Amino acid sequence: MNVELDRDRFVETMRYQAQIGATEDGGLHRLTLSDADREIRDWFAEQMEAEGLGITIDEFGNMFGYREGTDPDAGTVLVGSHLDSQPYGGIYDGQLGTVAALELVRTLNEADIETKHPIEIVNWTNEEGSRFQPAMQGSGVWAGEHELAEEYARTDADGNVFEDELERIGYKGDTPAEPQREYEAGLELHIEQGPYLEENGKDVGVVTGVVGFTWGEITFRGEADHSGPTPMHHRRDALVAAADVITQIRRLPDALGERTVGTTGHIDAGPNSINIIPETVSFTWDLRDPETAVIDEARERVLAEAERAATREGIEWEYTDRHRTDPVQFSEQCIDAVRDAADSLGYDSMEMVSGAGHDAVHVAKEMDTSMVFAVSEGGKSHNESEFTSWDDCYAAANTLTNAAVSLATADR
Amino acid sequence: MNVELDRDRFVETMRYQAQIGATEDGGLHRLTLSDADREIRDWFAEQMEAEGLGITIDEFGNMFGYREGTDPDAGTVLVGSHLDSQPYGGIYDGQLGTVAALELVRTLNEADIETKHPIEIVNWTNEEGSRFQPAMQGSGVWAGEHELAEEYARTDADGNVFEDELERIGYKGDTPAEPQREYEAGLELHIEQGPYLEENGKDVGVVTGVVGFTWGEITFRGEADHSGPTPMHHRRDALVAAADVITQIRRLPDALGERTVGTTGHIDAGPNSINIIPETVSFTWDLRDPETAVIDEARERVLAEAERAATREGIEWEYTDRHRTDPVQFSEQCIDAVRDAADSLGYDSMEMVSGAGHDAVHVAKEMDTSMVFAVSEGGKSHNESEFTSWDDCYAAANTLTNAAVSLATADR
Lengths: 412, 412
Hints:
Two copies of one chain form a homodimer. Chain A has helices at about 5-20, 35-50, 95-110, 135-140, 150, 160-170, 195-200, 240-255, 290-315, 330-345, 360-365, 390-410, and strands spanning about 55, 65, 75-80, 120-125, 185-190, 205-210, 210-220, 260-265, 265-270, 280-290, 315-325, 330, 350-355, 370-375. In chain A, strand 1 and strand 2 (about 65) form a beta hairpin.
């Protein structure tokens, strides 16, 4: 038996949420713990209440809505994503997955469908990690990956403390930020943020795992000299060394794996003046692959290139590892549920590994998990031109709903 | 007949001026038109007055002190440099050349030496160009290279307007900023800011000309995508293209000329976030050589590489020429005067081309000109570790003094 979401209501709900923190160019600027975040949370709580869900706000602001099952001993199926956005980000990202979770319970209530397993929907705090680092913070605290006190103390660029901001918007709850029940399975719908579904002409993605990644920062310290009278052979130019490593990070993936990616997203130079040789340059690496060994190899090669570049320029260097996440392999049970749901609805699906981290990575530490991916036009995300057609949004939401229902009604 | 400066008084004067705007680490932070600039100007005016010089402050703040000659028809010899500094710069730079010009007139007065030609000493406004661009601004306006109104309207990083700041410190004079007399010759003492004198074991440099240079900015516009799920072949990474050109700017000089130098001193990336592919990267070029043809060739090759890099990444690019100065060949008369002065004092000198622009480049448009260079330890400048020994300062100041006296007493 398939359950079908009400397409009109679903699209209307997506459009409604996109107004809160809307940008002039059709995007979304709904940074975590901002006034816009409070507003979307208030709305989300109202919707959950209207559906008769049991609401829990935990001490880290994660919002849960619980729908009882028929078997008091059956584990809960957890479904959801996040409602915060990147600065001037898109309106789909994780919002789609949270709206779809809400539509799932609306649809079950409307059709009076009972499930053996309880279903709980969730909006995780600060998935984006742009205002406060790290990303996927709420699910990370909840899964025991991060220390509550440490994450409370994080500050944004203006020096605002996370805990103060959480209190300010009224979402510091009393429930400990940790699993409060037995969970059977977890599902998250998110846009792909990559081009594979579109390139392959598929309707939805069945996510089998998530690439791991390493983040770090390299700093070169050369010598600030006048750009005119300093001969080339006298220079210790930190930016030239950085350029060598940035080039290496661009080329490395071809030499390693089919799914390896490498990026320098951030660079700062000092004194950063047109006629002074750069003395200090700091820049980041972001290296990802589905295989742990490939990630390690990529990081080693980048550091080896930094050492060579520093030697060539005769300068000092240092590096800091900023973050590391191992690749995740999702569970067969949940992958099957997503694939079968897509098949039964007549959607053309493909299995894929997620190139981005998601709350589901933390959820997977607590329970069997998988994800549904929606098509991202041009693979674009984290900017206002992010786009997924309503057809593709609907296909993914329907897949999520039916996968959740099949897991929640399974005889386990 | 040689004139010898009073070494103790000269060193004491150098030390005195270095206190005004001194940094904790022994450098100088005396940005143009700052309170520290006002203080050093007040001091300089007092010293000139004490020597009985006829003081002129022109409408751009350039300060002149005139010492009469014996021949009313003889052209004036102009001697001086600048008293402003880079942010956290050194205490020698052009300050040495201005103090030496003051010591020149002190010495002539003390010894009651009359010269046929009048001698005028000068402190040029805003040589450094770090607070307000362009560099060598005061001498440029004076020599008719820049429009007064345009330069008045320049703003610093905080939005302060040049003309307002000039009035605020009380140095907007009434005299038009243009040559007010007939000039016979110009001389400027400056630290070398390069390593050639030290490497060759010389006492002073005889400057035969100044390299020309081209300044410009290249902007690449790629696409901001998520660093995880965007495959390498889908990327339009503005920073990778910039790295290619920065590398080219580093390598180019070897392929062009012995004295060619190329620098990227400034870079800005956006959105500049660890997990977003850089969308916009702007960075500068600074290319210098004694030959116009080589400068043009270097600029062409950099732009050609930018075009290739943009094509490789599939991105847009544009460039802006920011500044251009042709190489300058100083006059034989003045070069000879400097070389002969060094010889007669027993200093070991070498002829050299200046790698940096100086006020003397503008002065040379109005009169025969040359420069004296003082040894720069390690070639360092524009930072607090800039260093010239008092012996080397004194040798250069004595050379300047005697070159000026020989030009001022010559029978022309």
